[in-house]
Specification:
The complex is a heterodimer of chains A (243) and B (269). Chain A is α/β, with parallel strands linked by helices and 243 residues long. In chain A, 38% of the residues lie in helices and 25% in strands. Chain B has 10 helices and no strands. In chain B, helix 3 packs antiparallel against helix 9, helix 6 crosses helix 8 and helix 9 runs antiparallel to helix 10. The chains are: A alpha/beta (243), B mainly alpha (269). The interface between A and B is medium-sized, with 24 and 17 residues. Chain A: Its main location: membrane.
Chain lengths: 243, 269
């Protein structure tokens, strides 16, 4: 049974169809990269999986359980699926530690003292031990994004979604964030990421999906999609992206 | 000194000279021209009488303590009620629909009626029900009128603060599994309140002045006390004294609010 499965997912904003029948399966521990031009529906698809956007039609399964039933309380699902955004979205009025502890305290019902060892270990693992007490505006973009990842991980999610998390970073900070993803992959985290980092996608992903106008035009292992793209649109996109 | 620094120093000297000359001219004109007005000596006698000022000032200051007292118990009540109304107006669950309607009606009514009218209607109306002492006190009902009116304004400012928090903050908090209420309490409200502190400071200053409206229903606060002296001494100087006392409080407060506002503008940029 796949960890995450999408069947014919349709999402519209008004009369604009952003996801037009997306089918996707993600196995446990797999890293799937969504590539495609801006506006092709990558971000919206991730937000749908996290139930931040309700879908019009189709279904999303987590461990074989339909999580897209209209009216289902999204809280428990969101606690199992972490998402990290392009613009970090740290809470500016809390320091890094408080940012990370908020959701486990409120949702997992743990106290600060109970969380302390686990959270400190997370900070240390991602090279942020000396940054725990800094506020977001005292951190670099790369540090902020790593705190955002730690914040999502502190909920102990089963699946992680990454929405172009390096796009807002200075080029020299991209590496430190991508390294974090490799670490997670090694630990067996199931991940779906939208990205423009083609080099990274080609090397690290188990599966590439090329999105165009809300459809997965082409999907498969990186060697196939990058090495031998079937569609003209894919070829044109890759020619531009890899230039 | 570089070319540019020399130029800027020259510009600074030039602006300083122009500003000084124009200020001196305006002040001098006022100083010499106003006394030429035919009624000046009478106005001076009845509004700017030094002896009267000295004689009445301590009593006015004492009466001002009542203003401060009313202010001190009204302000926290306004903050709490204003926040509750703001939250009621943003309530989403259908069970709370009556609350939303109530919140909207509340703000419409109390922003739409002049403060003095609310003070009159509540200040005279409710004690008119024949309540026993101390429940017929104008202090209670006058304060309530201020609290209701100011809560309506303060609620709207809180709402604008809530709207000013970027929706991506909400999305980030929801994505972690927090409930709508937790998102509001832990993420949105703390930022919203911080964003509106300068605007709320201005409301506090306005409230401090509007406490004087209660004089119309009884309490002998500073404005009323000045009126008593005016009748007693047949002189308007006590009103000027009252104005001075207000300014001693409000000018620093206004400056501080402006300072907060300016700092916030800098941070947003």
């Amino acid at each position: 049974m796949p960890k995450l499965e999408l069947q014919g997912v349709i999402k519209r904003f008004g009369d604009r169809t952003v996801c037009d029948g997306i089918d996707l399966t993600v196995d446990e521990g797999q890293m799937v990269c969504l590539i495609g031009a801006s506006g092709s529906g990558k971000s919206t698809l991730l937000r749908c999986i996290n139930l931040l956007e309700p879908i019009e039609d189709g279904a999303i399964f987590l461990d074989g359980e339909d999580i897209s039933i209209p009216g289902l309380n999204p809280q428990s699902v969101r606690a199992r699926i972490g998402i990290v955004f392009q613009s970090f979205n740290l809470f500016p009025h809390m320091n890094a530690l408080e940012n990370v502890m908020l959701a486990p305290r409120r949702v997992r019902g743990l106290t600060r003292a109970e969380l302390q060892p686990e959270v400190e270990a997370l900070f240390a693992r991602f090279g942020l031990a000396d940054r725990m007490h800094n506020y977001p505006d005292q951190l670099s973009g790369g540090q902020q994004q790593r705190v955002a990842i730690v914040r999502a991980l502190a909920m102990q999610p089963e699946v992680m979604l990454f929405d172009e998390i390096t796009s807002a970073l200075d080029p020299q900070l991209v590496g430190e964030v991508l390294d974090v993803l490799l670490m997670l992959k090694k630990q067996g985290m199931t991940m779906v990421m939208a990205t423009h980092e083609m080099g990274f996608a080609r090397e690290a992903a188990d599966k590439i999906c090329f999105l165009d106008s809300g459809r997965i035009l082409e999907g498969g292992p990186p060697e196939t999609v990058f090495g031998n793209p079937k569609h003209q649109t894919t070829q044109a996109f890759l020619a531009r992206a890899l230039k | 000194m570089t070319r540019r620094e020399r130029y800027e120093a020259h510009q600074r000297r030039r602006s300083l000279v122009i500003a000084s000359v124009s200020s001196v001219t305006v002040v001098a004109a006022l100083y010499f021209l106003v006394p030429l007005a035919p009624g000046w000596s009478k106005v001076q006698q009845s509004f700017f009488n030094g002896d009267t000022l000295v004689k009445t000032f301590p009593k006015l200051l004492e009466a001002f303590r009542i203003n401060v007292m009313i202010f001190l118990w009204s302000a926290p009540a306004i903050a709490v009620l204003g926040l509750l109304i703001a939250l009621a107006r943003d309530a989403k669950s259908p069970a709370l629909f009556p609350l939303r309607i109530f919140g909207a009606a509340f703000t419409d009514i109390f922003r739409g009626v002049p403060v003095i009218l609310t003070v009159y209607l509540i200040g005279f109306g409710i004690p008119g029900l024949g309540l026993p002492r101390p429940w017929n006190s104008p202090y209670i009902w006058g304060s309530l009128a201020l609290i209701l009116t100011y809560s309506a304004y303060v609620a709207e400012i809180f709402r604008s603060g809530i709207d000013s928090v970027h929706h991506s903050q909400r999305a980030a908090a929801l994505s972690l599994g927090l409930s709508e209420q937790q998102v509001m309490r832990d993420v949105v409200l703390p930022q919203a309140i911080r964003n509106v502190v300068p605007s709320q400071m201005n409301m506090l200053i306005a409230l401090q002045k509007d406490v004087s409206l209660l004089s119309f229903i009884g309490p002998v606060e500073i404005f009323r006390q000045a009126g008593v002296f005016k009748s007693l001494l047949a002189n308007f100087t006590p009103y000027v004294g009252a104005a001075i006392i207000f300014l001693i409080v409000t000018i620093p407060a206004t400056r501080y609010a402006d300072h907060l506002m300016a700092r916030q503008m800098r941070e947003r940029r």
